[in-house]
């Protein structure tokens, strides 16, 4: 898999980088030789700084940490501007930040629907927007990557709001690919299934509470071909491909990595 050469240190931004899949992506892209802009909420400062220090020590990676909220346009603009100012350019953005809730549609509070739309849709929209502005300005192409989900490929019970946002990421990714191909920018998304992250544990805890089931019971309902839950590093390997030169002829796609639950 192609990676930057020592005299061409490409820069990638990752949102929601403090834990879970975002952390796994940061570890992998640092290993691949990218310089990184890491972004998360202010409450995640300790975890994000610990990750940044690990990357600097173990991979000699130049890392910039920025704190804010992907649902706020000015924060995302500041993220891109800060990373470019500190590291000199941008090659890729991974709009990884996202949240989920468990509710039947008619029991979903409007404020919770708004929260998911703001983070999962607007957060990706703003990330795509300001990355595209910078990449077009540079005139050297690049990569834009979003976080979809298996829930963006098929409906899931008690996930109507979440599914709606992840289907939106797929549509946004396809349309953006058509808009930006002329600039040598590819736009793709990754669609994880059940991955061993704090987010998955929160969902499992909810189902255990409302259903009176032991912890882990809900996760076990997602039977896949491999018979196990995935790891963040396995999603990071897919993102590594989508960021690399090896994916130069791939755009507008949403790749599933779910161990074989859903087949396109």
TrEMBL record:
InterPro entries attached to this UniProt entry: NAD(P)-bd_dom_sf, Sc_DH/Rdtase_CS, SDR_fam
Keywords for the protein's UniProt record, in alphabetical order: NADP
GO MF: oxidoreductase activity, acting on the CH-OH group of donors, NAD or NADP as acceptor; quinone binding
One Pfam family here: adh_short_C2
Protein name: Acetoin reductase family protein
A GO biological process held by the record: fatty acid biosynthetic process
Family as reported in the entry's similarity comment: Belongs to the short-chain dehydrogenases/reductases (SDR) family.
């Amino acid at each position: 898999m192609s990676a930057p050469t020592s005299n061409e240190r490409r820069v990638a931004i990752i949102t929601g980088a403090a834990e879970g899949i975002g952390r796994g992506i940061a570890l992998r892209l640092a290993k691949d030789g990218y310089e990184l802009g890491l972004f998360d909420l202010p409450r995640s400062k300790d975890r994000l700084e610990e990750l940044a220090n690990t990357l600097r020590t173990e991979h000699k990676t130049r890392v910039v940490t920025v704190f804010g909220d992907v649902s706020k346009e000015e924060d995302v603009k500041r993220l891109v501007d800060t990373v470019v100012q500190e590291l000199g350019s941008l090659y890729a953005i991974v709009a990884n930040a996202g949240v989920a809730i468990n509710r039947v549609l008619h029991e979903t509070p409007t404020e919770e629907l708004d929260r998911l739309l703001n983070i999962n849709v607007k957060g990706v929209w703003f990330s795509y927007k300001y990355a595209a502005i910078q990449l077009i300005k540079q005139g050297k192409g690049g990569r834009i990557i979003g976080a979809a989900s298996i829930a963006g490929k098929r409906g899931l019970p008690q996930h109507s709001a979440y599914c709606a946002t992840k289907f939106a990421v797929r549509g946004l990714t396809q349309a953006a690919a058509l808009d930006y191909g002329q600039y040598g920018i590819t736009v793709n998304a990754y669609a994880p299934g059940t991955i061993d992250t704090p987010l998955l544990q929160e969902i499992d805890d909810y189902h255990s509470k409302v259903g009176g089931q032991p912890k882990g019971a809900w996760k076990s309902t997602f039977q896949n071909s491999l018979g196990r839950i995935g790891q963040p590093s396995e999603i990071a390997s897919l993102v590594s491909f989508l960021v690399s030169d090896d994916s130069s002829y791939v755009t507008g796609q949403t790749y599933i990595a779910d161990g074989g639950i859903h087949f396109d």
